[in-house]
Design brief:
The chain is mainly β. It is built from 1 helix and 6 strands; from the N terminus they run ββαββββ.
Length: about 120
C-alpha cells in the first residue's frame, strides 16, 4: 500500500483480501487505539482500491458518520473491512467494520467520505 503517512501514523499494513467493492486490511497500532485511530486506519485501508492505478493519489477525509463502538477495545491488532458504497467523480463513500484479530468480534463500525482532488 502506497501511503503518504510516516511512522507512527501508518496503521494499515497489508491487504488480506480484496474484490471490486470490499477490501480487508490488516491494521496494527502501537497502542490500544482510539475511535479516531480506527477512522484513520479505515481511511488508509480505502487506498487499497487505488492500488492498481499507476500513481498514488492523495485523498482528504471530509466526513465521518454513524461511528459506533460495539465492544471493548482490548487489543492493538485488527482486520478492517472497507466497503465502497458510492463513487461520484472525485467523491468516494465507504463503510467499515473493524474486527479484533484474536476474537473476530466487531469492535467499531461506521462510514466516511474521501475527496480526491481533480488535479491529481
Amino acid at each position: 500500500m502506497n501511503l503518504p503517512h510516516q511512522t507512527p501514523l501508518i496503521f494499515a499494513k497489508n491487504i488480506v483480501s480484496q474484490d471490486e467493492n470490499v477490501v480487508t486490511v490488516f491494521c496494527d497500532f502501537d497502542q490500544v487505539p482510539t475511535l479516531a485511530m480506527f477512522i484513520e486506519a479505515s481511511a488508509q485501508s480505502s487506498s487499497a482500491f487505488e492500488i492498481e492505478k499507476e500513481e498514488a493519489k492523495i485523498g482528504f477525509l471530509t466526513m465521518v458518520k454513524n461511528i459506533e463502538l460495539l465492544n471493548e477495545i482490548t487489543n492493538s491488532v485488527f482486520l478492517i473491512k472497507v466497503t465502497k458504497e458510492n463513487e461520484i467523480n472525485n467523491i468516494k463513500q465507504f463503510s467499515f467494520d473493524a474486527f479484533d484479530k484474536d476474537t473476530n468480534k466487531t469492535i467499531v463500525t461506521g462510514s466516511f467520505t474521501i475527496v480526491v482532488p481533480n488535479d491529481q
